Each structure stands twice: as structure tokens, then as C-alpha cells.
Amino acid sequence: MDVTLPRISGSPEVGILPELANAHPDFWNDARAKYGDMFQFRLGATEVIALCQPRHAQHVLVDNAANYRSKGGNQGFRAAIRELTNEGLSTANSESETWQRQRKTVLPHFGNTNIRPLGDLLIEVVAGHLHDWESAAHSGDPIDIGPTLSRIAIDASVRSMFGVDISNEEADELAANSEIVMDHIWLSILGSVFPQWLQLLDKNRQQKAINAVVAIATRLMERHVAGGGSDTNLLGILLDQRDDDSVEYMTEAHLNEEVVSLLLGGYEIMSITSRCALDLLLHNPTALARARAEVDQVLGERTPTYEDIDQLKYCRMVIQETLRIYSPSYQLQRMAEEDDEIDGVPIPAGTIVTILAHAIHHHPEHWSQPECFEPERFAAAGGRHRFAWLPFSGGRRACLATRYSLMQGQLILAQALQTFDITPVSTEPLSMYMGTVSRPKNGLRVRLAQRQREEA
Ligand code: HEM
Q: Rounded CA gap, 16 and 321, in Å?
């Protein structure tokens, strides 16, 4: 069938790369509104078909997933990230035997038996870092709370993965260098086809940043081993697998790639999510009041326990709604291995398709008033397509850490609201941009006050 899809016209040399650089993720909502649910564009030399309906996502991620095992061959994101985490779980190019084995190994870490200790760990990590806000609460001076949220995500990642502590200097170094690495991945996607962008690439700087991240990961691994190791954290589980003769040997290089990939992938997205959630909540007085009422009712003044997490339902809805509005993984890329058809449109073998999660999350057929922040949308399960909300992707390659991530977000909100009155300094809306993931440009400056409670 000869079907011509609408196309975003771009430059003959580089397609729509210049438009995408530094763009807000709403770029994709505007494109969907203008061109429809399936359209085409060129990203440098690569032709891409954009998919904006939940049924498209279901087709690619579940119904015909066997045809879309590759995350984009050696083009785009995959090529750019390869130098860092070639064989890491999240970047492995296809559902190879190695990927299957690794996924089976890592999955239980975030599963039912381990989720309680992870929850207890999160409560402790969040409480520890909220102490950092006490002096600002005392002085009344405005502070940017972004760095604390990032530090919480780093500590939670490091402690759950390695079972050891990370020093302040190491955490700062990790945060600064991962940002360089993530920005560079995006720049090198642009630079691979758009020579002007190459001038912005500083290979030396990137290599140094990668070396620094790997060095920190190596130090943490050594610290884990020196401390006697433990098979209750993720590194212990990976090391056990490597040492188990009954399975194919995991090389040192592969182990390092896995560790770096899990470390970077997990913490960066988590820190963006809690940052956006607090921003949205603080700028929505009705939702803020409801969240506070829930926290007061469930927790009062006592330290949360694992059992409380399930009761913090509204806080979970706030995180879910945040991930709808600002899904850090705003697109999910796959390559068709064989000829296929989606909604009657032929997809020839080798075609790159991108599921535009951001456009699906704002699609007016699936969400009423999609631009409004309304956590209550998530109160009732069902009633919408299962792929209308896919911040954690879906199918065989869905995020392993969905429950853990929601829990982390819930606890940060709950413990922060329990302890402080938080007032945003600026009324400016969040300003997002698309890179390897979508993330805020601005910090989150607030005034804090220790909460005064009335006597019961
Ligand atoms: C709010 C937080 C998070 C979000 C929104 C998120 C989102 C995602 C998405 C969208 C994917 C699939 C990408 C694709 O299909 O192409 C994914 C995969 C993955 N995520 Fe997460 N993630 C989060 C937190 C974490 C954390 C904390 C970890 C823990 C280390 C983690 C580990 C992974 C791994 C290992 C994969 C690869 C799974 C595979 O390919 O088999 N994620 N995540």
C-alpha cells in the first residue's frame, strides 16, 4: 500500500535537528496537533516515524515486540551512548541472551521480597538529607532545593546498589560529571550529522567525565568488597552471578558497564522527577493542601514506616501526574527488524520508529485538559488505554524500578511536607528542555519554615 505520511519539513541536510536542539518537549504536542498521530521527520540522515497513539505503543512494545527488539540499531541515541554502557541492561541493543540473563538477575532486587528493605532505606536517606534544609528554614533565606533532591537520588542509588556510603565530594563529582556525560550524548547525536554542533563537542571533556564516573563506580565497588560485600544489594547480586560457574561468565568490562549504566540511569531520572513533582505541587495550592492533609493524617509527626507508603495515595498520584506532564523519557525509540504495518501504514524493515510518550501523555483523546496538573486523574484505575501513560515504557523492556521510583517520589514529598512549610520564590513555570532525557533548565528556589503544629 502506498501511504504517504505527513512530514515535518526540515533542512535538506540535517532534517529537524536544529529545531530540536534545546526545544521544549511540547514541540511534539504541537507536531501531533499539526500532522496527526503518525508523521515522519528526518533526524540528520535518519528517517523516523513518530507514533502518538497508545495503540501504537502497545503494538511496538507488546503485540509485535519481537519485531522491535532493537533500540535503534547503531544510529542515534544508541550509537552515542555506546562508548559508555555498550552492554548495560538499558542500552543493550536487542534482547540478547546476555540481556535476558541480566534482566532476570536484576529484577528481584526491585521485586516483592526486596522492596521493604528498599523502602526502609529510602525513608532513612530522605530524612537524613532533609536535615540539610534546617538552617535555611531557620534563617528564612531562599535556597535552591534541586541539589538536595539530586543528592537524595544519588545516595539512594549508591546505598541500594553498593551497600556503602558516598562522600559529599564523590557525590558532587558524580553529579557534575554525569551531567556532562548526559549532555554530551545528546550533543553527539546532533553532532554526528550536523557538523556545526561538532564544534560544541569537546571529546576530551567528555572522556574525562566518563573516566570520572567510571572511577567513582570502581571506588564504590572496591568499598563494597572491602566491607565484606553482601548479596542483599545489587552489586552483590551481580557479583554472585559473575562468580557462578553455571552461567556464562560476565567479563569485568561488562560488569563495569552494567554498574555505570544502573548508577547513571537510575539516579538522574529520579532526581528530575522529584524536582518536577515538588515544583508542580508548590505551584498548585489546592493539590498542595490535599497532599499536606494526607501527610498529616497518615503520618502526623512520626517517622514514616514502610507500611505508610501504600497509604500515601495522593502523594503517589502527584508523582504519576508529574510523570505524565513531564515524562523524562519523552520518546522511546525502536527499529523494525522486518516489514510491518501500523494503522495501515507500511513500516519497512530497518525503519526507526519513535513512540512519543510526551505527545501520548498530552493527547486530548485520552486526557481531558491535558495541560492541567490534576493528580486526581490517577484516583481510579482503568478507564483509559493501558498505554496512555507510559513513563516507564511497557512490555519486556519496561523499567525494572517502577515501584521503587514511585516510592522514592512519594517519600520525598511526604517527608518534606511533613517537616516544612515550603513556599516557592518564583511564580515562573518550570522550563523544560529535551536532551537525552527531558529535564528542567531552572533550579527550584524556595523559602522554608519549620512546620509549627497546633497542640492536639
Ligand atoms: C522516575 C524514575 C524512572 C523512570 C521514569 C524510568 C523510566 C524508564 C524507561 C522509560 C525505561 C525503558 C526505556 C525503553 O523502553 O527504551 C527504563 C528502563 C530501565 N530502567 Fe528505569 N526509570 C526510572 C528509574 C529507574 C531506576 C531508579 C532504576 C534503577 C537503577 C532504573 C533502571 C532501569 C533499567 C535497568 C532499565 C532497562 C530495562 C531493560 O531494558 O530491560 N530506572 N526506565
A: 29
The H or E element that residue 249 is part of is none
For residue 248, which phi and psi values (nearest 5 degrees)?
A: -55, 140
Q: Give the DSSP letter of residue 164.
A: S
Torsion sign, CA atoms 353, 357, 361, 362: negative
Strands of 216-357, DSSP E: 332-335, 340-342, 345-347, 352-355
400 vs 361: which has the higher pLDDT: 361
Dump pLDDT digits (tens) for 15-31. 887 888 779 999 999 99
With CA atoms as reference, report the closest residue to 407 among 332, 312, 284.
312
C-alpha cell at 409: 517520589
Question: What CA–CA distances, in Å, run from 115 to 24, 98, 233, 395, 402?
Answer: 35, 25, 12, 21, 11
Longest dimension (CA), the chain: 73
Task: Output the nine-digit C-alpha cell for 20.
Answer: 530540536
Q: What's the half-sphere exposure (Cβ side, CA atoms, 13 Å) at 134?
A: 6
Fold assignment, 17-450:
Cytochrome p450 (1.10.630)
Using one digit for the tens of pLDDT, what is the confidence trace for 116-144? 889 999 999 999 999 999 999 999 999 99
Number of H helices, E strands in the chain: 18, 11
The Cα 229–Cα 344 span in angstroms is: 54
Q: Residue 82: is its pLDDT beyond 70?
A: no
Hey, whose CA ends up nearest to atom 9 of ligand 1?
Answer: 392
Type of residue at 207: Q
Q: Which atom number of ligand 1 is nearest to the Cα of residue 327? A: 5
pLDDT of residue 275: 96
- Hunting for cell 568490562 — which residue is that? 253
Say yes or no to pLDDT of 226 above 90: no
**Tens digit of pLDDT for each residue in 307-329?**
999 999 999 999 999 999 999 99
Q: Ligand 1 mean position to 65 CA, how many Å?
A: 17
Q: What does pTM read for this prediction?
A: 0.93
Tell the residue nearest (CA) to atom 10 of ligand 1. Answer: 392
How wide is the angle at C-alpha 116 spanned by C-alphas 110 and 117, nearest 5°?
85
Residue 99 Cα to ligand 1 middle (Å): 14
Q: What is the pLDDT of residues 385-410, one digit of tens each?
A: 999 999 999 999 999 899 999 999 99
